[in-house]
Specification:
The protein is an alpha/beta fold and about 170 residues long. About 40% of the residues lie in helices and about 15% in strands. It has a single domain, classed as Rossmann fold. Helix 1 crosses helix 2.
């Protein structure tokens, strides 16, 4: 579910202050017919703003899964968000490092377009790295087509599912 699905113009920005954001989150939680689900993943903007705070205070969360990238700035933002989750007694499952590497489609060598990982900064704050996921252009293509569920790299998907469900 996304607020963008409800907008007349998908290019119009959603410029809302905290109370409106909180009300929409509450309305999504209470009024969307989620059906029978095993997991509900809530994708939040980075940081510790109104949306993450509202989610952490409103929803009965079983855990917080942080998503980072190899850069030091991303690690700093994740550490702040994890500290917020800890302050609000939300169990921290760990972190996934997205865009950790890419695999050349021609020679199949692995390379790190964003440089070396700064995941050690997370480990220093007792945040385990559950998985390191690659850059995969097919994900962007499927996303543009609205078909992410068709992603079929079983190794990546198994890594991701294990990371999410093993905690």
């Amino acid at each position: 579910m996304s607020i963008n699905l409800l907008l007349d113009d998908p290019y119009k920005p959603v410029i809302w202050r905290g109370p409106i954001i909180a009300n929409v989150i509450k309305q999504f939680w209470e009024e969307v017919m989620w059906g029978e689900i095993d997991y509900l993943l809530v994708d939040l903007p980075p940081g510790t703003s109104d949306a993450p705070l509202t989610i952490m205070q409103l929803l009965p969360l079983n855990g917080f899964l942080a998503v980072t990238s190899p850069q030091s700035l991303s690690a700093m933002v994740v550490i702040k968000a994890v500290n917020m989750a800890n302050m609000l007694s939300i169990p921290v499952l760990g972190a996934l490092e997205n865009m950790s590497y890419a695999i050349c489609p021609y020679c199949h060598q692995t390379w790190k377009p964003f440089g070396s990982s700064h995941s050690e900064e997370l480990r220093e704050h007792h945040i385990p790295i559950l998985a390191k996921l690659p850059i995969d252009p097919s994900i962007a293509k499927l996303g543009d087509e609205g078909k992410l569920e068709a992603y079929d790299d079983t190794k990546v998907m198994q890594t991701l599912l294990t990371a999410i469900t093993s905690k």
